[in-house]
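ugh ok fine here u go
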Amino acid sequence: MSFTGTYTALITPFRDGTVDREAFRALIDAQVDAGIDGIVPVGTTGESPTLDHHEHIEVIQLAVEAAAGRVQVVAGSGANSTREAISLTRAAEHAGATGSLQVCPYYNKPSQEGLYQHFRAVAEATTLPIMLYSIPGRSVIEIAIDTVARLAADCPNIVSVKEAGGSVDRVNQLVQALPEDFSILSGDDPLTLPFMACGAVGLVSVAANIIPDVMARLVRACLNQSFDEALAIQKQYYPLLHGLMTLDTNPVPIKAAVALQGRCAEEYRLPLAPMSASTKESLQELLHDFDLL
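structure:
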């Protein structure tokens, strides 16, 4: 199995300190109705670093139940501890997830050999198809192209990479180094069009929490080689995509946007904090500009 199309990196709604199960189910229903190909719970946007082990598994289980087979569920089950990543991934498989998103280990700064051994150990512990997640802005290091190629050759269930390093040229290099059936997905909404023009086949989207239909149209246009249509969508929505990623650290702006729409409480867990009043006003103006409030 490979991953192609539009996947939404879901927020995790909280209410009074716990996961808001009702709001989470409603968010997933809206994604399904909009034509999204899959959902990605408990990733960066899902505030996974602030969930304890039990909550992490609970959110994956809830996502699988709410999706009910209507869309793929690619569970964020990576960690900077290989043992923890294996434990979470086995739990995701047991819950019925479609696949696993494996983030590049952060903070401990392993060598490329360490990364290879880490991802290989996780892959050998599960039958789930795995999407690697390279995001050097948060993990300090990236998964080197040679390491991705080595994993693709040695681990049959490592089938995809979410590329969030911001480099179009890196996508070009990945396309050259990887088998044709190994899928590359954009991890940055504003870079979807250039990444897909170079060979990426999908997107893991933050903005799709509030505009799933738009992001699905953009990806479908690229997959259909309708790049004039894709460019028109990109030009129209770029200010929104850019704003959601730059007004504050992700996922603060996107969760605030969903909350402003009345679909969840604006509740974060420390060390994440709400945006300032002036920044929130800018967000409201941006959402009004796109008729999202």
